[in-house]
Amino acid sequence: MRTATYFFIFLNLSLALFEEPAVYPLPFLATAVLEVLCLLVFLGRLTHFAKVTLHSVFWKDTKNICIMVAILLSLTDLAIYGALRLYNVRSIRWSRIVRPIFLINFAESRQIRRAFRSIRNTLPEITYVFLLFMFSLLMFSLMALKLFGERNLQTAEGLPYFRNYLEIVFDLYVLVTTANSPDVMMPAFDFSSWYALFFIAFVIVNTYIFMSLFLAVVYNNYKKHLKVMLGGACD
Questions:
Q1: Is the pLDDT score of 141 beyond 90?
Q2: Rounded to whole angstroms, how far apart are CA atoms 193 and 41?
Q3: Between 165-176 and 110-148, two packed helices, what is the crossing angle to 10 degrees?
Q4: For residue 222, how far is the Cα from the chain centroid?
Q5: Domains of the chain: which residue ranges?
Q6: Does the UniProt entry include the keyword Signal (predicted)?
Q7: Over the stretch 31-61, which tens digit does the pLDDT of each residue have?
Q8: Running DSSP on this structure, what letter comes out for residue 177?
Q9: Helix (H, G, I), strand (E, B), or coil: what is residue 160?
Q10: Is 53 helix (H, G, I), strand (E, B) or coil?
Q11: Distance (Å, rounded) from C-alpha 50 to C-alpha 235?
Q12: At residue 234, does pLDDT exceed 50?
């Protein structure tokens, strides 16, 4: 039963790869039939679970309510989307965002819910580190605007360089991943090699210090919450 449930959950999630818009789209009828099949399996599994569970317990479990609501929303969206296609009206399958609900709320997904709950409990404790990182990013962006914004520098494509604050924030955010290094600093470096010190300081502070600190806080808190939950499950 667990293997069959996971298979149809995986199949339901995989439909997003073949539904429009997709790189390899399948006919709407094919994806619709597969989705209805998955929803029928989910409904059958839920019905089976209701048969072996006390009526009062079943209806008090929010996981069961979430599954029923997700099935209803998926069927409603599928019917509306199909009706609109008959009249050549372009629309979007908005119910695809509720498909992960099946992965989380079935009884077979206890371990996934445990990991999800640990992540949820970890988020408030990493907020302070994240806010410090964002403050550092915003301050470096402001310094970059003051350093380079008034020098009329241009990128290799001839575009203005570091003159819009929001664009600077985005470029430096990408620099944290080093994905645009060293391209992002070349216009400033060509103007004066001393400006490389600004980008070196930014990478040291944000990439090497803040990202390492952020990773350590996430790992330690996630490990702590997971250990508490596993201990409670064993008790």
A1: yes
A2: 65
A3: 130
A4: 17
A5: 1-108, 119-232
A6: yes
A7: 999 999 999 999 999 998 888 888 888 888 8
A8: T
A9: strand
A10: coil
A11: 27
A12: no
Would you call 224 exposed, middle or buried from its count of C-beta atoms within 10 A (0-12, 13-18, 19+)? middle
Name the burial class of residue 114, with classes exposed (0-12), middle (13-18) and buried (19+) by CB atoms within 10 angstroms of its CB.
middle
Extended strands (E) in the chain: none
State the pLDDT confidence band at 225, using cuts at 50, 70 and 90: confident
Quote the Cα angle for 164-166-167, to 5°: 65
Q: What are phi and psi of 162, to 5 degrees?
A: 55, 50
Q: Which CATH class is domain 119-232?
A: mainly alpha
Q: At what angle do helices 110-148 and 211-234 cross, to 10 degrees?
A: 170
Tokens (6 digits) for 47: 């019905």
| Helix axis angle, 2-14 to 28-51, nearest 10° | 150
Task: Give the chain's mean pLDDT.
Answer: 87
139 has pLDDT over 90 = yes
Band of residue 77 on the pLDDT scale cut at 50, 70, 90: very high
By mean pLDDT, which of 11-20, 87-96, 104-113, 122-131 is the weakest?
A: 104-113
With tokens 């990493």, the residue in question is: 126
State both tokens at 64.
């069961």
Paired with 160 in beta bridges are 154
At position 157, the amino acid (one-letter code) is: E
Interhelix angle for 28-51 vs 62-86, to 10°? 160
